[in-house]
TrEMBL record:
Active site: H521
Keyword Lyase: yes
Residues annotated as binding substrate: K405, V406, S407, T477, A478
Role of this protein: Catalyzes the hydrolysis of futalosine (FL) to dehypoxanthine futalosine (DHFL) and hypoxanthine, a step in the biosynthesis of menaquinone (MK, vitamin K2).
Bias (Low complexity) ranges: 47-56, 275-298, 309-331
Record organism: Streptomyces pactum
Enzyme Commission identifier(s): 3.2.2.26, 4.1.99.29
Protein's name in the database: Multifunctional fusion protein
UniProt record similarity statement: Belongs to the PNP/UDP phosphorylase family. Futalosine hydrolase subfamily.
Amino acid sequence: MTHANAVTPPPPAPAGPPDRAPSAAAPGRPAPGTPPLPLPLPGYGPGRLLRALPPATGAPDTGPVVHVLDGGVGPAAAAAATGTALTAAALHGTPYDLVVSAGIGGGFAGVAPPLAVVVADAITAADLGAQTPEGFLPVTELGFGTSTHRPPPALARAAAEATGAVRGTVLTVSTVTGSAERAAELAGRHPGAAAEAMEGFGVAEAAAAHRVPVLEIRTVSNPVGPRDRAAWRIREALEGLRDAFRRLVPVLTAAVAPAAPPESPAGPSRQGGTAPHPKAAPIAAKEATPVAAQTPGAPGAPAPPAPLEPSGTPHDAQPPGAGTTADPGRAGAPGAGTGTATGTVAAPEAGQPLRIAYSPCPNDTFVFHAWAHGRVAGAPPLDVTFADIDLTNGMAERGEFDVLKVSYAVLPWVLDEYALLPCGGALGRGCGPLVLTRDPGDGNGDGSGGDGNGDGGRARAAGLAGKTVAVPSERSTAYLLFRLWAADLVPGGVGEVVVLPFHEIMPAVRDGKVDAGLVIHEARFTYQRYGLHRLADLGEYWEGTTGLPIPLGAIIARRSLGTARLRELAEAARASVRAAWDDPVASRPYVLEHAQEMDPAVADQHIGLYVNEFTADLGEDGYAAVRGLLTRAAAEGLVPPLGPDALDFP
């Protein structure tokens, strides 16, 4: 890992019993060639030591310092070891900025052959959930926590390019696969899986708890499948891992190295002494667990830039005061999505950064680019967290941020604490959710589908009666529209409704795991690549029955900020939208970086569809659409009723 604060050598250990040992911290500056330095961790005996490696560059004051920790076997041991190292460093005031889970593992046939290097673009707990007669249910479908953590996309790409690695999902299992049947099951449930190992998810959970980004790298010692010890190539895989890390050093160094700090108004700093070199974070895996890296900084010197965000990208050109992002995965903890906003986080004082959460989708990054990068005159600085909207909904219900992008469907649960801003959100026409199926007979036969209305549309909709439908969230405009459409056009209603992550819905429909899927956003432009057909366009249904635009995503802000600041925020959001329209090229790198490899043409379509006149101002039609949707949903018992003034802006 790396940190952006000053790194100082740890104080000498005081005399006393072992359970009073001081927390581990940065080891100081070992000279080139110095052997690894053992650093005891609280609660761990011999063998569970951080080893501080000299800077890879050979110069004592440059390059990241790497701490290597043998974290044990399995996700629980790896999580405990990583969490201990992270906590010890944080308590000493020298927190890490990056954790690398590293080791050997099994490779999936046709993706990662023996001795291949694999860099994870997703770290997934493959057996965390419940086994049912219908098959395996991941923990997310049970309503608890998360099953996937995503490394920073830019860092994962750079690591893969530097090492010649395969990029894909690395599955974490508690029991190593030993049969062809189990290998096929895992590959079927996780089409993007490249490798299987036993520690990555535990390391990622610990890193997420500390809001530190994570990377996982594996070399393949054997195929995933029937257990054949004679075919294992452990020694060669370990040698390959060592070679991969040699090539990875420049990438990790670049990832954690701070830019030159700006000069103070009084001129260059005259702070005496030499700044310590960066400290690395723990590396975690079977063979070597947590690796950390820290960035330089001397006491009294200007603060270095923010570290990598857990969501996957570094802050670029953040205005002074903008902090690092919080971990979006934390929003999926038990209890998310229920209850009312608690207001446990105090509103920031004037001049302090506002904590804002919005999605990495192109429309949101396009809208907020200028504001987030200090290009809106007079606007308060932002501390940005990226999280998908199903997570921001839960954050709003728990009162965790000052400003959030949420679904309009969640407003009835949060408007006591938050006010709806009249701008910055997503409404529109021709941009509604789609209901997709595999059967071309369910649509128009050409993949274009229909609106589910009229005689032909009613007949097609009726075919969904009793069927299983996958949806991305039950607290979303898409879900409310789907329920209203089904109540009107599906006799007796649909059958089971299952909640799946956005990216799993179209593959589930294609593979026959569900009968139909409810999709949103860029899926409007890509579903035909999956061989799917449109059964209904719920936007056309809504517009055809109401004449109003579709309310999708709202911007809300904490009421406790006060009337004056709420109005200031609304003006800042409008100015940011106008700046994006005036100079769309300026936001393009930010948009594409956070779009996570989305085709640029699709990103442009996404922006064109969801950023429009309603983004600059809701207007009469916008407010009518929001109240109309929530009033109809309340009549169906889907949401609590709104008060008469609930949508009023101060």
